[in-house]
Amino acid sequence: IDIPEYHNLTYADFAVENQYHPDWDKFNIWDLVANNDEECFRAYSMANHPAEGNKVMLNVRISTPPPPLWDTAPPGIASSYIFNLKEGDKVTISGPYGDFFVKNTDREMIYIGGGAGMAPMRSHLFDLFHTQKTNRKVSFWYGARSLREMFYEEDFDEIVENFPNFSFHAAMSEPLPEDDWNGPTGFIHQVLLDSYLNEHDDPTEVEYYLCGPPPMIDACQKMLYELGVEPEMIAYDSFG
């Protein structure tokens, strides 16, 4: 997506859903101001799938510096611009690019995602089940800090109801008291290892599709290599 030059973009003008106001109030995020001195572009994974037609869907996490660095480090150029967009605004997008595609085999598939890494997971899985009606065994393991970071879960629960060959698993690394979370806690790669892969007949014959922040990708790859999984069985879409 192309990011134009802009100045004095104030976070106080952003339309933020009420459920997130306490966090924005706590850290005074409303006081941030973003500037971009020259045109640039940023790459994001697409969450839409082919059957959704002429539509581009992105999952963007707003990028802000830690509060102690607000005087010296600016907020994210691209995410600030995107969060300020209103319905009807025109943007310039090119793509898709890359090689994060589903392999044409009948092997079991395991998707591992975290944070905004949900985007290509949605694209792949919606196409596999809503369009292709795949018979392949597929599971999706998603890690979030708390329930506030969960999205699309109702869509994946619906796929679970309609396709016995699909399962959806979520884990929270920092659940909030109000989450009343009774599910798995910890990092998603460890939850996957402890609850499934350690008991799997042959994890080396599974295809793995990863998307998330670099530390998550690194941890997943290390885990899979230690299980004997070959690099060609692992596809990933990493972001900074």
Describe this structure in words.
- It is a single chain.
- Helix content is 25%, strand content 18%.
- With 240 residues, it is α/β, with parallel strands linked by helices.
- It folds into 2 domains: 2-83, Elongation Factor Tu (Ef-tu), domain 3 (Beta Barrel); 109-238, 3-Layer(aba) Sandwich (Rossmann fold).
- The strands form 3 sheets. It has a 5-stranded parallel β-sheet, sandwiched between helices. A two-stranded antiparallel sheet has the order 1-4. A two-stranded antiparallel ribbon has the order 2-3.
- Helix 5 packs parallel to helix 6.
- It is globular and about 55 Å long.
- The mean pLDDT is 93.
Give the key terms.
single chain, 240 residues, alpha/beta, Elongation Factor Tu (Ef-tu), domain 3, Rossmann fold, two-stranded antiparallel sheet
Contiguous runs where pLDDT drops below 50 for at least 5 residues: none
Let me know the largest β-sheet. Answer: 5 strands, parallel
The CATH superfamily of the largest domain is Nucleotide-binding domain of ferredoxin-NADP reductase (FNR) module
CATH architecture descriptor name of the largest domain: 3-Layer(aba) Sandwich
Please report the distance between the alpha carbons of the first and last residues: 16 Å
Please tell me what the overall shape is: globular
Number of strands: 9
Strand arrangement within the widest β-sheet reads 7-6-5-8-9
Note the run of SSEs as H and E: EEHEEHEHEHEHEHE
CATH class call of the largest domain: Alpha Beta
